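Notes to self after the Tuesday call (sharing in case useful).
The group wants a holo model before anyone commits to mutagenesis around the pocket. I volunteered. Ligand is glycine. Logging inputs and output together so the record is complete.
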Amino acid sequence: MAGSADVVFAGGGVIGLSAAWLSAEQGLTVRVVDPEPGRGAAWVAGGMLAPVAEATFGEEALVGLFLDAAARWPAFASRLTEATGMETGFQECGTVAVALDASDRAEIDQLLDFRRELGLDTSRLSASECRSLVPGLSPAIRGGALMPGEQQVDNRAVVLALIEACARAGVDLVAERVASVSLGRDGAADGVLTEGGTLIPAGTVVLAAGAETPRIGGVPAGVIPPVRPVKGHMLRLRATGTGTAAGTAAGTAAGTAAGTGQAFEHIVRGLVHGHHSYLVPRADGSVVLGATAEERGYETTVRAGAVHMLLDDARLLLPGIDEWELLECIAGLRPGSPDNAPFVGPTSVPHLVLATGHYRNGFLLTPITAQAVAAYLTTGTVPPPLDAFPADRHLSAAPPAGT
Ligand code: GLY
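Result:
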């Protein structure tokens, strides 16, 4: 692609790639500038599409957005596979929430009430019902809840498919890091400057660099909202031996993932003495265990204490994990926003658009964000429900209580 593009995306994570793909499919000429597309927070994510479990009380407006976002995933996943021939790992696998002590049990009961108020299908489970759904759970657990219909994708499969979809749709991927936005004499964005000094001209600039977005220069103070990095440690394990669905008769009896290679059927959300964690079983037999939420600034060093804490909590729920193979320890930075809602849409700088601040829900919000960005770029309007969270809303930098 020579000359100016219609739009340049600063950042090729799951948000930048998906919005670039759908924009190109609308006939726009598109560039994505990222030194390693898909290898930031998107590579570290759990891939859970959990519209309620990652929200807190008082966030009903946000939950409405999340439920709408989740409903768009089945069609989006099919469209991505049709466009590329590549799998996304999309599954409507459901979630089992498990409590270790009485106070954890009470917190899960509150989540049950919240889901029922929202009209969502949920049932309380005894400890033995939890254990029959998730083979290998400890006899010490105090019961939990079943949330049918919750979905997951394989985050890495999705970003690889999005890179392919972008290539097939004619998106130009530029392997450089954006240093700043270029503003014309009229003060409107007219491209980006890379760290290597290249000017990439475009009619519109979309900042979709996740937690890195506020570090992009060239924009007047106050235009980019206070998105902050929230570090998450994540582990990948391979379930082997006893205590996995594939290795037990209970797996077959309970209709779990026995025979498929998947360690167990459902996503498991653990509450262990007040600590939240999750185990996401992938079809290839690996299990993603996450995640910490740490306010430590821009650093992604994998630290022993965080790994220890995740494993310690997980083995109280699933003692057999001690024998599992530890495949990977990794850390990434979520783009936290002060009110936990994303920033999607125009800014006060003409032709400068934001798509960032998705915090714990980047994958969940991918289809709805990509559709909204493509709609804005072609019609000039951010469609509902994302129009309720304008990118130029004014917020103080403080994170909300409870995060
Ligand atoms: N959504 C998973 C996480 O942020 O840890």
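Two things stood out.
Residues 102-117 form the longest helix (16 residues).
Residues 4 and 120 are 47 Å apart (CA to CA).
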